[in-house]
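From the methods appendix. Each design record in this collection lists the tokenized structure first, followed by the designed amino acid sequence. Records were kept in a plain field format so they could be parsed without special tools. The example shown here is representative of the layout used throughout.

RECORD:
FOLD TOKENS (68 positions):
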């Protein structure tokens, strides 16, 4: 995956965690649409592997475990 694509996806994840979905989509969508089939497959794998980056679930689980 191109470094610019990875940066865009990471930024989109950051914005999504901040409840700024519209801005996240404005950054991620053009990159995803411009990807060729090979990079598109890499993007799909990256998204599947990094769901928690978008949802912040890991941060919540770690915080909850720390308070037990």
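DESIGN:
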């Amino acid at each position: 995956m191109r470094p610019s694509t990875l940066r865009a996806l990471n930024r989109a994840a950051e914005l999504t965690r901040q409840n700024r979905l519209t801005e996240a989509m404005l950054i991620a969508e053009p990159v995803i649409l411009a990807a060729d089939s090979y990079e598109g497959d890499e993007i799909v794998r990256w998204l599947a592997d990094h769901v928690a980056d978008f949802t912040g679930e890991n941060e919540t689980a770690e915080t909850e475990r720390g308070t037990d």
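APPENDIX NOTE: The chain has one domain: 3-64.
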